[in-house]
């Protein structure tokens, strides 16, 4: 690499609590090495629209503890085309940006790879998504906060469920992955957990729920990942409601949805995000490109960007057995 002129930093895809801590760390680390940083608003959309903002160590004061992302985020259809990416690359060059730190999920990493391959811009990624479904890191920015938010809500629902002896189907986020559901299921004491990685059979699920409610004569909580193969909590609830065998069950659905994306990041997410931000800038300075920094076995490691979006991270199947044993 010819040397870094200016670093561009952006957040892209679904926002995640802790992204601001990462932006702050990128800016402050770069300035500590006398490198300027430009913030790119709204991810790849902003790159195409030249939505740039100068960032300084002082401009990132007081954002560490804030949820959302001060740089805003977007999912960009225009960037999916080579023409869109060419405009983005031209705009970056005009701003003197020849290195990027991308903070986001698999789509963001894929976009960064394309910029590198097609236009030679150095890129390093920081994993940021509440879903935790990124290969190359044990944990992503926002995952811990999202889990804590979900568990806090599950606890609250448990109180009211118990008061009325109700069955609650609680849907948590996770379009393609069950990390949040599985771990919140364990942490929230769910009687049953349904995740996308596991074959869900409606007949079997109904049998389990029937067993739970008829033998317990008390409340039960089923945690359902948004991307569960049966189509989510509402679909399952509808199937139960349409079956007279379940008439004896008082059933409610609660979809936690985007509540899990907001809020102040936990201490764990703040530290993780800060470590990633520092590591990403240091990686660029050392001449690395097309890699994502991640936490593997407690240490910061780099993984080729291509592996991040072409491989999938497996859930811990042992945890499924754990949910069964503990319910
Ligand atoms: O960020 C990941 C995620 O929260 C998924 O769990 C969810 O399916 C999706 O984003 C929702 O995206 P949007 O906010 O664009 O509806």
Topology:
Elements: E1 6-11, H1 19-32, E2 36-40, H2 43-48, E3 52-55, H3 82-94, E4 97-104, H4 106-119, E5 122-127, H5 143-164, E6 167-172, H6 179-187, E7 192-194, H7 202-216, E8 220-225, H8 233-241, E9 251-255, H9 267-285, E10 291-296, E11 299-304, H10 305-310, H11 317-326
Parallel strand pairs: 1-2, 1-4, 4-5, 5-10, 6-8, 6-9, 7-8
Antiparallel strand pairs: 2-3, 10-11
The structure holds 6-O-phosphono-beta-D-fructofuranose.
6-O-phosphono-beta-D-fructofuranose binds at residues 14, 129-131, 173-175, 226, 261.
What does this structure look like?
The chain is of the alpha/beta class and 327 residues long. Helix content is 42%, strand content 19%. It has eleven helices and eleven strands. The chain has helices spanning 19-32, 43-48, 82-94, 106-119, 143-164, 179-187, 202-216, 233-241, 267-285, 305-310, 317-326, and strands at 6-11, 36-40, 52-55, 97-104, 122-127, 167-172, 192-194, 220-225, 251-255, 291-296, 299-304. The strands form two sheets. It has a seven-stranded mixed β-sheet, sandwiched between helices. Strands 7-8-6-9 form a four-stranded parallel β-sheet, with helices on both faces. Helix 5 crosses helix 6 and helix 6 packs parallel to helix 11. The protein is elongated, with a radius of gyration of 22 Å. The mean pLDDT is 96. The protein binds 6-O-phosphono-beta-D-fructofuranose. 6-O-phosphono-beta-D-fructofuranose binds at residues 14, 129-131, 173-175, 226, 261.
């Amino acid at each position: 690499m010819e040397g870094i002129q200016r670093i561009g930093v952006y957040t892209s895809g679904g926002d995640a609590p802790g992204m601001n801590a990462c932006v702050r760390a990128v800016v402050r680390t770069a300035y500590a090495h006398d490198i300027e940083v430009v913030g790119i608003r709204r991810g790849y959309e902003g790159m195409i629209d030249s939505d740039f903002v100068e960032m300084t160590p002082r401009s990132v004061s007081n954002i560490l503890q804030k949820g959302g992302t001060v740089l805003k985020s977007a999912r960009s259809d225009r960037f999916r085309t080579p023409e869109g990416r060419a405009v983005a690359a031209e705009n970056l060059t005009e701003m003197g940006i020849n290195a990027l730190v991308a903070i986001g999920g698999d789509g963001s990493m894929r976009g960064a790879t394309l910029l590198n391959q097609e236009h030679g811009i150095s890129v390093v990624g920081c994993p940021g998504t509440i879903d935790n479904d990124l290969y190359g890191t044990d944990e992503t920015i926002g995952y811990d906060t999202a889990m804590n938010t979900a568990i806090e809500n599950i606890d609250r629902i448990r109180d009211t469920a118990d008061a009325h002896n109700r069955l609650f189907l609680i849907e948590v986020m996770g379009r393609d992955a069950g990390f949040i559901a599985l771990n919140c299921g364990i942490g929230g004491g769910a009687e049953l957990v349904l995740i996308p990685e596991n074959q869900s059979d409606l007949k079997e699920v109904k049998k389990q729920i029937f067993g739970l409610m008829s033998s317990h004569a008390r409340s039960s909580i089923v945690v359902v990942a948004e991307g569960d193969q049966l189509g989510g909590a509402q679909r399952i609830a509808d199937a139960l409601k349409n079956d007279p065998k379940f008439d004896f069950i008082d059933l409610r659905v609660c979809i936690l949805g985007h509540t899990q994306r907001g809020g102040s990041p936990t201490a764990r997410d703040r530290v993780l995000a800060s470590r990633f931000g520092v590591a990403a800038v240091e990686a660029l300075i050392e001449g690395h490109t097309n890699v994502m920094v991640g936490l593997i076995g407690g240490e910061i490691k780099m993984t080729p960007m291509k592996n991040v979006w072409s491989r999938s991270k497996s859930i811990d199947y042992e945890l499924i057995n754990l949910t069964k044993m503990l319910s």
